[in-house]
Design a protein that fits this description.
The complex is a heterodimer of chains A (285) and B (262). Chain A is mostly helical and 285 residues long. Chain A is 74% helix and 0% strand. Chain B has one domain: Rossmann fold. Chain B is globular, with a radius of gyration of 18 Å. Classes of the chains: A mainly alpha (285), B alpha/beta (262). Chains A and B meet through helix 1, helix 2, helix 9 and helix 10 of A and helix 4, helix 5 and helix 8 of B. The complex binds adenosine-5'-triphosphate and magnesium ion. Adenosine-5'-triphosphate binds next to helix 1 of chain B. Chain B: GO terms for molecular function: ATP binding; ATP hydrolysis activity.
Chain lengths: 285, 262
């Protein structure tokens, strides 16, 4: 920079201030992107083709029922109220298992993330347990807890626990030291530091951990219901297989997909206000 | 009065970051710490702020020995270090914990006015420019009315225009309560613009090489001759501290060097 330009810069402080404070950038209203609908094209096309193939007798449709029959089965199941019994049974198991597993994961993750001694104490054992495929616990859980709800919920809780534990501990360990120092400068107590800096800082990663925990919860509820249940969407699956009702199996699968998606979306949208401040690309995804 | 007595810092890995620093800064004085990279400027501020412990020596604020962060000492880091989950308003209010809601509002609002960001009070830090973020960080430190304010190259990442306007904002805030300021800078112009005294430091181990008084009247005319000669004096001291002989001082070259010294 030359001396002349510089003295101009110094003398036009007003202009400099204006430069430093650009007017509020107006957020562009997001318009609906029609390409999003492209995702529906393939499944709908395949469904229509299959429907037509069965309708015109090209395919038999006994083992792979046409969409109309699956929908009819779903409607029939929901009219008798049977579907809702099963949905509710499954949902209840997932919720209880998720709450227990997530709570334990948060507590242990927080301990092992924030207290070094606790980490040396807990982490090796938990990592070793993590190496065991969760389904391998099933026989033990049945022996210990019986074949009813308790063993199912326990399996789901175990499945939810590990991703939440890992996510929370990792999130706490990766909190920016620089932000923690801001807390030190203002002499926050340990408790206030945790509440005002650590907690908000780990929130985004913690929510991601909860999300993957929830996904695993739905995975394990199926396994749990396979091991003997009289109700639940998993029971519908087993029943459909034993009774030779592929339409019931597919109906249950669709119910699972919807249920999982709805639960996940509730978690994401319910917690969105908490992480609105985040400066990430997710907003644009 | 801020007193540093025989202050030394040796890091765990054996780095002698500071050795026998003696410095007195009296109330309301603005002192600029200037020196090459790695001569312990940040270390010195961190010791005063209580974020690190000295290996030897003492720091006193009005004869009270300091150990750990002190309510009367504020710091602005090289990066804004705003809390991304708090709005601009809440970031500035972060240190006002024991203050009533009404007073907090008044004080933050006043600070926002001073830094010219009133209309940005409810935005997230991510939506601010770098210069705006740094202003918020300065306001956050000022709003608790510290007796001593430590600034670690707060403007070094900004362009000359923004820096000039931030100097104005800083002096505007300083005028109100006249805290003692210790400012680390790489920029000789900045030191002469803001400080009453320049402390030139030398590395390996970090120590004070020279002190220069910059007693120009405020507000300072950055185009005047006294300003120029002060800049030249600081540059000369800096050059000596780096053991590179100063050749044929040429006005224009000096000015460029001043602006681009780092
Ligand atoms: N945490 C640390 N552990 C070990 N050595 C460190 C640590 N922090 C700084 N140092 C060393 O101490 C010396 C002084 O560092 P410091 O950050 O105080 O320099 P500085 O004057 O602020 O430099 P700059 O102008 O580049 O910011 C350097 O040699 C640096 O490598
Ligand atoms: Mg530094």
């Amino acid at each position: 920079m030359t001396g002349q330009a510089e003295s101009q810069a110094w003398s036009s402080l007003k202009g400099a201030a204006a430069l430093a404070a650009p007017p509020l950038a107006e957020r562009k209203r997001r318009t609906f992107d029609w390409r999003l609908l492209l995702g529906f094209l393939l499944p709908v096309l395949i469904a229509l083709l299959w429907e037509a193939a069965v309708h015109f007798g090209i395919a038999q449709g006994r083992l792979v029922p046409p969409p109309s029959r699956i929908v009819a089965t779903l409607l029939a199941l929901s009219e008798t109220g049977e579907l809702w019994t099963h949905v509710w049974a499954t949902l209840w198991r997932v919720i209880v298992g998720f709450v227990i597993g997530a709570a334990a994961g948060i507590v242990f993750g927080a301990l092992s993330g924030s207290i070094r001694t606790a980490r040396y104490l807990l982490d090796p054992t938990l990592q070793a347990l993590r190496a065991i495929p969760s389904i391998a616990w099933v026989p033990l859980f049945i022996l210990w807890l019986g074949i009813f709800e308790a063993s199912k919920v326990a399996l789901i809780a175990v499945g939810v626990f590990f991703p939440v534990y890992l996510g929370i501990a990792g999130a706490i360990l990766s909190v920016d030291r620089k932000l923690v120092e801001v807390g030190h400068v203002f002499r926050l107590s340990r408790l206030k530091l945790a509440r005002r800096i650590l907690l908000p800082a780990v929130l985004p990663e913690a929510l991601i951990a909860l999300r993957s925990g929830l996904g695993l919860g739905f995975m394990f509820v199926v396994a749990a219901e396979f091991m003997g249940a009289s109700e639940g969407l998993g029971y519908l699956l087993v029943d459909g297989q034993q009774m030779g009702k592929p339409d019931q199996i597919l109906a249950a699968i669709i119910a699972f997909a919807l249920l999982g998606k709805i639960a996940d979306s509730l978690l994401v949208y319910g917690t969105r206000p908490l992480v609105r401040w985040q400066d990430t690309v997710r907003e644009r995804l | 009065m801020l007193n540093l007595e025989h202050l030394s810092k040796i890091y765990a890995d054996g780095t002698r970051a500071l050795s026998d620093i003696n410095l007195s800064v009296h109330e309301g004085e603005i002192v600029a710490l200037i020196g090459g990279s790695g001569c312990g400027k940040t270390t010195l501020l961190r010791l005063i702020a209580g974020l690190d412990r000295a290996s030897a020596g003492a720091i006193r604020l009005d004869d009270e020995p300091l150990s750990g962060p002190h309510p009367a000492i504020g710091i602005v880091f090289q990066e804004p270090r705003l809390l991304p989950w708090l709005t601009v308003f809440d970031n500035i209010a972060f240190g006002l914990d024991g203050v009533s809601a009404a007073e907090r509002k008044g004080r933050v609002h006043h600070a926002l006015e001073k830094i010219g960001l009133v209309e940005h009070a409810d935005r997230w830090p991510r939506d601010l420019s770098g210069g705006q973020q740094q202003r918020v960080a300065i306001a956050r430190a000022f709003v608790t009315n510290p007796k001593v304010l430590l600034l670690d190259e707060p403007f070094s990442a900004l362009d000359a225009f923004t820096r000039a306007s931030l100097h104005e904002h800083l002096l505007g805030l300083w005028e109100e309560t006249r805290p003692t300021v210790v400012l680390v800078t790489h920029d000789v112009q900045e030191a002469v613009t803001l400080a009453d005294r320049a402390i030139v430091m030398q590395p390996k181990p970090g120590r004070i090489f020279d002190e220069l008084s910059l007693s120009l009247a405020r507000p300072r005319d950055k185009t005047g001759l006294p300003f120029e000669s002060s800049v030249r004096r600081v540059l000369t001291a800096l050059d000596q501290s780096l053991n590179t002989p100063h050749k044929q001082p040429q006005r224009e070259k000096d000015r460029q060097a001043a602006a681009l010294w780092w």
